[in-house]
Amino acid sequence: MAKDNKERSTLKKWSRRAFIGVGGLAGVGLVAGVGGYMYMKSAVRKYSGYGLGDGNTMNAWITIAPDNSITLAIPRAEMGQGVYTSLPQLVAEELEVEVAALKVVHPQPESPYSNTFILTQEVPNIYKSYTVMETMYSFLPIVATGGSTSVADAWYNLRYAGATAREALIQVAANRWNVDPQNCRAENGHVINTGNQERFTYGELAEDAATIEIKELPKLKDRKDFKVIGKPVQRLDVVEKIDGSAEFGLDVRLDGMLYAVVKHPSTIGGKILSIRNEDRIMGMRGVKKIFISEYGPAIVIADNTWRASMAAKALDLEEDGVNKELSTTTIQTKIEQLLNEDPIEVRIDEGDVDAAMSADGGTLLEARYDVPYLAHATMEPMNCTVLVDEGRCECWVGHQASSVVHNLLREATGVKKKNIHIHTTYLGGGFGRRAEPDFVRFAGSAAKEMPGVPVQTFFTREEDMQNDMYRPMASCVLKAKVNPAGELEAFDSMSVLQSTAHNSLMRIMPSMATPPEKDETTVEGIEDMVYSMKNRRVSFGNLELPIQVGFWRSVGFSQNGFFAESFMDECAHSAGVDPYLFRKSKLKDHPRFEAVLDKVAEMSNWSDKGGRHLGIALIKSFGSIVGEVAELRQIGEKEFKLDKVYCAVDCGNYVNPDIIEAQIQGGVVFGLTAALYGEITWANGAVQQMNFPQYEMVRMNVCPEIEVEIMEVDELPGGIGEPGTPPIAPALTNAIFTATGQRVRSLPLVKYGYKFV
Amino acid sequence: MELSINGRIYKVEVEEHMPLLWVLRDELNLTGTKYGCGVASCGSCTVHLDGVAVRTCTLPASASIGKEITTVEGISRDGKISAIQRAWIAHQVPQCGYCQSGMIMAAEALLREKPDPTDEDIDQAITNICRCGTYQRVRAAIHTAAKDDEDVSPVIG
Ligand code: FES
Ligand code: FES
Q: Is-contact B46 B55, C-beta < 8 A?
């Protein structure tokens, strides 16, 4: 992905190849169907091959050149989670090649590259059969990276891609030697004749292998035979990321390129009507154009980012619909109201909660928890580079969903989809923010103003922070009845917040948007708690506001994990039971959960605390169970040092333990930043925080040591980018309780006088 | 103005007060140095001026005239990556990678000043933001680089 000028602006010489089908598929049974469905099914198997590199395309993912170089099409965005390494590992395991020798390219958003798991939560297998829904989602297509789904989605497809290519290569070699394929084996990029040890390189076989169909789907390796999967293979992107050559969206440089800076309306719901000082701005050095985008903001285009920023800052805008009403206080009032009204949805109602709560005996607990809005604050602010020229459009962007980019550019530039070409760069952080459409639309509208000229459209940090799609502010009232034996007789929760999935999908993919009451993200982490409870109710009250909310690393679990696992601690303490043992006693039917809990207790030496203050939390999210223990040292009354965090992870079969360790560490830091400092507030219709000085981050001095252990579990893989985040806030505040007896029910901690060194 | 960057002289026609960051990125296409905040808070834009780490998003380009500017593109010498870069590979530090140029430049400057820094020295000197949370590996890599006798091979892969 380093700059390759040969691959630069290709509009003029770009001719799209004819579509070809997924190799090795023929002869494999597919679900029978008729009419439109059959058409969709055959379309799902096709890809253009565009951008896959020169050489012989073995299938949608693998290209082998005569010089033996192997290029993999990896259709998931690399945003730090290691997907340009872990997915190649899946291929390499079956293809019998060194991971380090593989080159990664990002293909166009075409059907075989769909992420169906993100919608079905079922691990797909294009080589065996697709369900009707999988076929439909692929046909659309939905090529997206999010929800910690990449490995699960690829688990069969990429291994079979490697295995079928390997079998085709073996078949060709066997034909040339005139021996049975049984007498050949693949090893490190060669096919070897086991009789006489003769060998061909893959490059020598690929041209023929690309044309043949293998008759039978090969058997995938067993876990015990893995040589690449489960190993700490070096990241394929690491070298580019230590010498400055890795290309992020903001690093794209093209001949004659101009730089555009976005200026949003000053308050929520505002509309920019005119630019009062247009003449003055146009007179500033380097400024080429100012316009009001149909999507809302004013956009200044100049010959240098800084000049464009200075000009954008100097804009005097006439605005309509300026909304000075909205503030954090008015939102709080709305939340209070909704907490006291009937819920829009009772998502779980088991047994008779009211009767159990009012029955004699036991202890009743009630607690109210609150968290604020949070910004994503990806390190690289939003940006997108677009060139529109003679009915064609080319785009360079770090986005989590190339199929969404495709649709947006069609809409914003009017160019036909088949003439839109997308270069997906590295993402300087995603965390859900880069699944959103805004910056792509703005870039499309800017490029349309400047036909024939590539334009890089950019948010300053201030514009990025003040125009995010925030993790929603949320409040939750929790109630429980704990009996003298320490069992949960009843559990009741009422949450009030905006519906993330509804709000966000209405922007990203309106056809997929769930109504708020069906949005699982609102109470995920509460409704799926597995602790045994006799009676249980989980309710949701829908907060409606003009504020944009969106998917933020770990989504609903980010707040609900804090609510649920803090409240469990409250229940444990009220029952006079150790919080670890309290949880353990309620996991008899969930051995994987219990094993993770035991592991993290063991790692942290829970039974022998010495002078340490420990807090524990256990949350399953995105298919993986993570237990965390926070080890806290008290320095002053409200002053602490978080010395260490222990994490035990059950993510089923794992691909790269070193990347998993890094993701869990990163997830903990992300959650810790939110717990300590994170808060976006509103006043006079606008966000008050502008930049990092007002939206602080955990830095080196505060960052704890984070120890990670991965459980050995032979089950389908779970996610890894997000599950590290939810448990840290409750683990930390539970530790604060053991240290001080103070129960923290509102975040962020610094706002309530806590200090961390 | 004339700027000396990574041992080469560049001539640019820019406003005196244009921050060095944007001269590097937009005028010279040296995009290894990153923008993260523009207010000297995150460290993404760190380069060396005569060997000292500075944040270029608030540094007028004219203030670097007559000084030797080193960016992340310039720390490998004679095709050989630095001890810090070797340690970064050994510890597989980068995640998204966006903050890493700044981290590496801050770490290089620290090691020049303190060849064997303590954890406290690292806490003091490395105040850069990494949204991906690579701090633990950054710390470990700095300690490894401090012990590098020019011949460290990657610990993994
Ligand atoms: S961009 Fe210079 S310190 Fe953040
Ligand atoms: S590696 Fe992503 S911000 Fe540091």
A: yes
